[in-house]
């Protein structure tokens, strides 16, 4: 898997001026979507890189 493994999930605690959980931002659905988006972006960059090399 290309995704960065420590991106964040539902059990993460965010630190600001106080410690708090962000139930609408820090959950496994967003984590999975972020991984898929990252992998898609990596694949697009790889394809672009291959095209440049073949020129």
UniProtKB/TrEMBL annotation:
Keyword Lyase assigned: yes
GO molecular function: copal-8-ol diphosphate synthase activity; terpene synthase activity
E.C. no: 4.2.1.133
Keywords per UniProt: Lyase
Signal peptide: none
Keyword Oxidoreductase: no
Cross-referenced InterPro entries: Isoprenoid_synthase_dom_sf, Terpene_synthase-like
Biological processes, Gene Ontology terms: terpenoid biosynthetic process
Top class in the EC scheme: lyase
Annotated protein name in UniProt: Putative copal-8-ol diphosphate hydratase
Protein source organism: Medicago truncatula (Barrel medic)
């Amino acid at each position: 898997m290309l995704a960065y493994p420590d991106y964040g999930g539902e059990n993460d605690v965010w630190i600001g001026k106080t410690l708090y959980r962000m139930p609408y931002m820090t959950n496994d659905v967003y984590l999975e979507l972020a991984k898929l988006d990252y992998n898609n972006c990596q694949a697009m960059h790889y394809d672009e890189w291959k095209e440049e090399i073949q020129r």
